[in-house]
Amino acid sequence: MTDQDRNTRFAAPYVNAGNDVVLSLVPAGVRRILDVGCGGGDNARELRATHLGVEIVGLTHSDEEVAIARPHLDAIHVVDLDRGLTDAALEAWGAPFDLLLFSHVLEHMIDPLAVLRRCLTRLQPGGYVVIAVPNVLEWRTRAKFLGGSFVYTEHGILDRTHMRFFTYETAPDELVAPIAGLTLLERRPRGSVPLGPLRRVVAARGLWSAIDRAGLRWRPNLFSREAAMLARWDGASAQ
């Protein structure tokens, strides 16, 4: 992949309202967070509101995102996660962290495990890792596949910048289990059940919310759009 290809792949800044299921997995008491692929700083903004006194360092791919995210971070660094995680770059992030946050970034990496292993060298023993990746087998994508369609989009599960695909069931096996010393503590889904016109009935909000919760408990690999995971790091060698 050429530098021009990479610049095209990561051209647009990533801005949203923050990921509530990811934020719900951040343990109380964390003091120093590395937000890997911080985008516009949306998760950092929400974390500051709920974890008072937390220090957050962000990593991004572009100067454009730096300008957007800077107000929500204590420090921010531009780095090529696929190729730029040198010893010098890692040292520049400062003291070790007690939480690493990867919210919808690892699916964009050529070698997600290599990125995880390098970042783990900056995590305190006993620290935490929060990871969220899309579930490619969510029901909407399955319907497309059954209809014979596999077309990349500008965003979402089939985002054209995604290099790897995961499911709710396989994400822990692909991203946590292969790393010695990293232990899965919890996994949470976020998504919905196809209810059609019922969703337009405001008075039925309680009913369809209950159906969504039941569906996610029953078949998360079908109804969840993402897998959000919390893992603990015991300090074993990440190399």
Please render the helix and strand layout as text.
Layout (H helix, E strand, L loop, with lengths): L2 H7 L10 H4 L8 E5 L5 H9 L4 E6 L2 H7 L5 E4 L8 H6 L4 E7 L8 H9 L2 E12 L4 H8 L24 H5 L6 E10 L13 H14 L1 H4 E10 L6
Parallel strand pairs: 1-2, 1-4, 2-3, 4-5
Antiparallel strand pairs: 5-7, 6-7
Walk me through what this model shows.
The protein is α/β, with parallel strands linked by helices. It is 31% helix and 23% strand. It has helices at residues 3-9, 20-23, 42-50, 63-69, 87-92, 112-120, 139-146, 171-175, 205-218, 220-223; strands spanning 32-36, 55-60, 75-78, 97-103, 123-134, 182-191, 224-233. It has a seven-stranded mixed sheet. The longest helix is centred in the last third of the chain and has 14 residues, at 205-218. The chain is globular, with a radius of gyration of 18 Å.
Q: Strand content of the residues, in percent?
A: 15-25%
Kindly name the structural category: alpha/beta
Number of strands: 7
> What is the strand arrangement across the widest sheet?
3-2-1-4-5-7-6
Q: Taking Cα atoms only, what radius of gyration do you get, to the nearest Å?
A: 18 Å
Low-confidence stretches: 1-9
- What is the approximate shape? globular
Helix and strand string, N-terminal first? HHEHEHEHEHEHHEHHE
Largest sheet: 7 strands, mixed
Distance between the termini: 25 Å
How much helix, percentage-wise, in residues? Answer: 25-40%
Number of helices: 10
Q: How would you state the average pLDDT, rounded?
A: 91
